Amino acid sequence: MNFFSRLQNTGVNKKLPDYVNAKIRLSNGVALFNILFVALPFTIISFLYVPELIAIPVLGIVSMILVWVLNKISLIYLARILSALTPLLLTAVFTSNLIQGNDELPIVLFLIMIAFSILPFLVFDIREKNYLIFSVIFNLVVFIGVEYLPFYWIENTDISFITEGFLFEMNYVVSILLTYTIVFMLAYINYRSELKSQKLIENNEKQTRDLHESEDVLKKNLEEVQKAQEEEKNRAWVTEGLGRINNLTRQYDDLAALSKEVISEIVKYVDGNQGAIYLVEKEEENDEPFMEMKAAFAFGRKKTIKDKVKPGEGLIGQCYLEKDMIFLTEVPDDFVRIKSGLGDAPPKNIVIMPLMTNEKIEGILEVASFQVLPDYKVDYLKKLGESLATSFSMNKINANTKRLLELSQEQEEQMRSQAEELHQNMEELQATQEEMERKNKETEEQNQQLQQQEEELRQNMEEMSAQADEMERQMKDMEKMQAEMKAREEILDETTIVSEADLHGTIIYVNQKLIDTAKYSREEMIGKGHNLFRHPDMSSEIYKLMWDTIQSGKIFRGVIKNRAKDGSIYWVDATISPILDADGKPEKYIGVRYVIEQEEVAQKLFNEQLERLGLK
């Protein structure tokens, strides 16, 4: 840094605002200019032509040097007053002595005085209006009263040296140059201010865009969390419903009783109105399948609807053939009606679900509702179809096994009777033996069938075990997601103050971080206004600006000084965003705040905020 640069930066302090440091540099520049182009030349002129007035330009040199000294010792306002008033005052005293007893006026000196009279506008900012007004009025009084100043020592001096000739021309050029320089500096300062304002506007727009992007990310994350919570809630609902049905299948061995309890539980659980279960049976004559209604809940049908349905007959029979779900949202009036004490009406939604396992249909489930079932309830019915098919199949296998065992016991009883008859009638021994061989052969065939059925039962048990493992995995996934969500909430509570307020500023939600920082309990804050935390040092204009901003649907960001319940002070970097309805009007306000731990940093940011808002 060269000598002139160090001279210009005398008194500059990083703790001072930028506009003050700029004016300090200007006052140093004015002092240097006055010494080089005004005070020193007039010292030489005075020495050659009016030595009686040489003290005046010398005093000007001293006063300009004193400007640097005062800036150096941080008396910056006194230094600038000196640089704004002294040049005009000394020039006026010099001029006053020259015009005493002379009719001719030194026009060049008046031009220099005009230039010096606008120095206050150069060295003082409009925000320092008290100093500016004082300096302008003082210079105006000096300029107007130049002929009446009491400080003069000579009369009837020949002033031709400054009213004509070379010195006149040189001083004329200096006066014009001085005026142009001051005007140029004022224009340059204005230009720099406009550039700074434009930069501040651009920074503000960038911050606004960043805030909007942050808000969009926050909203997107919130929507994803809410969606995950809803999906997790639905999965838990499905898992609980499957568990209830599995409990019922373990409690009942009778197929009719099991069907009745199951259809009642299903209709109630999905908030339906009617339901029925059809199980696949076979005709004894020709072994052809048909569907028979085993149980119904709150059911009322037209007489044309049968309780026994053949494959392909109606929607039940069609579902059997297609082996796929039928989902109706437009139900014919003559299909089924839901009856109550107030009358009857057709349902809005009917779900017909095949109960199928290993590509084999064991039955059909029908559920009717006034409301269209959501996807997760339909998914529940699909998963339930697989589980119920297995349960009904096992129930049938158990019933057949029981029937075969009873038949086997009857056959054994018959064999014992025949043995007694053999002892009683030896003549019929041969016939009885042949009958026994035939019965034994049938028994072997039946035992083989029993073994085959036992193998199918084992396979069904393995499938149920796999389903149980899948349910356990889903429960673990749900616990993992809950743990992750809890961790996110704990991180948010640890780092960020979050609160919500209604349109009147009444607190409706606070998180744990705000409770810990403000030292109020949740009950003490809910229902109160945010002025509960307001510190007396905070200007009401900041809060008015904040309300004007968020009530207009925009985001407010600023540094706020708050007071906790115990009277301690804490600073926050606050961002308050309105939640808008479909019409773009605020419904409520969400505030996100970060605690500024270092008070010096907070105070600096706060002061910059006041200057940016024009409140300081």
In short:
The chain is an alpha+beta fold and 616 residues long.
Please tell me about this protein's structure.
With 616 residues, this protein is of the alpha+beta class. It is 62% helix and 14% strand. The protein contains 17 helices and 13 strands. Strands 3-2-1-8-7-4 form a 6-stranded antiparallel beta sheet. Strands 10-9-13-12-11 form a 5-stranded antiparallel beta sheet. The protein is rod-shaped, with a radius of gyration of 50 Å. The relative contact order is 0.05.
Fold blueprint:
Elements: H1 3-8, H2 18-49, H3 55-72, H4 76-99, H5 107-117, H6 119-123, H7 129-144, H8 160-163, H9 165-251, H10 255-269, E1 274-282, E2 289-297, E3 308-309, H11 314-322, E4 326-328, E5 338-340, E6 343-345, E7 349-357, E8 360-369, H12 375-424, H13 429-495, E9 497-501, E10 507-510, H14 512-518, H15 522-525, H16 540-551, E11 556-563, E12 569-580, E13 586-596, H17 599-613
Antiparallel strand pairs: 1-2, 1-8, 2-3, 4-7, 5-6, 7-8, 9-10, 9-13, 11-12, 12-13
Helix pairs in contact: 2-3, 2-4, 3-4, 4-5, 4-7, 5-7, 5-9, 9-10, 9-12, 9-13, 12-13
Q: Helical region count?
A: 17
β-sheet strand percentage: 5-15%
Shape: rod-shaped
The residue ranges in which pLDDT falls below 50 over 5 or more consecutive positions are: 301-305
Q: How far from one another are the termini?
A: 34 Å
> H/E element string?
HHHHHHHHHHEEEHEEEEEHHEEHHHEEEH
Number of strands: 13
| Strand order across the largest sheet | 3-2-1-8-7-4
Radius of gyration, taken over Cα atoms and rounded to an integer in Å? 50 Å
Largest sheet descriptor: 6 strands, antiparallel
Kindly report the average pLDDT value.
Answer: 80
Indicate the structural class: alpha+beta
Task: Give the proportion of residues in helices.
Answer: 55-70%
